[in-house]
Write a structure and sequence with these properties.
Strand order of the largest sheet: 5-2-1-6-7-9-10
Number of helices: 9
Largest sheet: 7 strands, mixed
Number of strands: 17
Order of helices and strands: HEHEEEHEHEHEEHEEHEHEEEEEEH
Structural class: alpha/beta
């Protein structure tokens, strides 16, 4: 079952605006999460009277060029909320799974944990585990649903709450909450909104489970699409594409890994731009038509793409006008 069909099957009653604000849950919850995407959900659950008994997150790890050790984001949130947490090196290890089982948790809540969970681990709580995934399943299973959804030109997305199953993101769905994608919204902005929405959706889901009113609908596995991990090469701009497709790519790759292009030997990240009608007829793809304070207008396969913000290699994020002032553009200069 796909898209709107799945949402209809779930039914309007599955989306209560919700239940008594003074509610205090009876479920004993273990929360699995690591990245900053999971922090709002942990906070919202706690504020809603659904604080987990235990938070499980990844160990502190080195990041960046200096390989400095940084704590997992969810660890920081757990400390702020004064919640008990653990950071097992291998959460699938039999001793850790046995420890969870002995705690007699009712339910596991998983969001942006970053670990492939064994069947023994996600079955340790009595009611199994649920996951909040940032797409309208069965669309965009996998690691990068937000970027792929934007790049493909969708106007809406959302959060799906599903059972954790052996196959990645393939479990039965309980709740889906939609949200419109803004006309100029980039992946970073959309990700922040979906992180907040995931917490609110999980509150609804947990209240329904606690009340015994949950309803599960199997996904249409034949209609599933895959959102693989985004790599740097995915951000390379093909100026022969229509300007509308280039704009979607720029928004989907912001902030990481960035939509990339070259001018002569130098690499640039295009941060922001917009589509403009080509009033002068099609030029050679990548050709800079005009460059000034208002931006850099580039010819594409259809229409123009006006670069508004740009980041030169080893430089800072700046307006295109700022860059042009310090780097006069030669006639017939061409990106790509």
């Amino acid at each position: 079952m796909a898209g709107r069909d799945l949402q209809v099957a779930l039914g309007a009653a599955t989306f209560p605006e919700a239940l008594d604000p003074s509610y205090s849950g009876t479920l004993k919850i273990v929360f699995f999460g690591s990245s900053d995407f999971a922090r709002p959900a942990l906070r919202v659950l706690t504020e809603a009277g659904l604080a987990p008994t235990l938070v499980v997150t990844k160990p502190d790890a080195p990041r960046g060029r200096g390989r400095k050790i940084y704590p997992a984001e969810v660890k920081l949130e757990a400390e702020d909320l004064k919640l008990t947490y653990e950071q097992p090196e291998d959460p699938n290890a039999p001793d850790f799974v046995a420890k969870l089982a002995a705690e007699k948790f009712d339910l596991g809540v998983v969001i942006s944990y970053g670990v492939i969970m064994s069947e023994a681990l996600f079955a340790a709580p009595a009611k199994g585990c649920i996951n909040a995934h940032a797409s309208l399943l069965p669309l965009y299973r996998g690691a990068a649903p937000i970027q792929h959804c934007l790049k493909d030109g969708h106007t809406k997305t959302g959060i799906s709450v599903m059972r954790i199953a052996e196959k990645l993101d393939a479990g039965a769905v309980m709740l889906q909450e939609e949200t419109e994608i803004g006309d100029r919204e980039n992946a970073g902005e959309l990700r922040a909104r979906l992180a907040e929405l995931s917490g609110k959706t999980l509150v609804k889901a947990l209240k329904l489970i606690d009340a015994g009113k949950e309803k599960w609908v199997e996904q249409d596995h034949d209609g599933a699409t895959w959102a693989r991990m985004i790599e740097k090469v995915d951000g390379v701009i093909d100026w022969t594409k229509p300007a509308t497709e280039i704009d979607l790519l720029v928004r989907a790759m912001n902030p990481k890994p960035g939509a990339q292009t070259r001018l002569n030997a130098r690499r640039f990240i295009v941060i922001q731009g917009e589509v403009e009608q080509d009033l002068y007829g099609a030029g050679v793809a990548g050709l800079i038509q005009t460059a000034g304070e208002e931006g850099i207008r580039v010819c594409t396969g259809k229409d123009l793409y006006r670069i508004i913000r740009i980041k030169p290699e080893n430089g800072r994020n700046m307006t295109a006008g700022e860059w042009v002032r310090g780097h006069p553009v030669q006639p017939d200069a061409r990106f790509g």
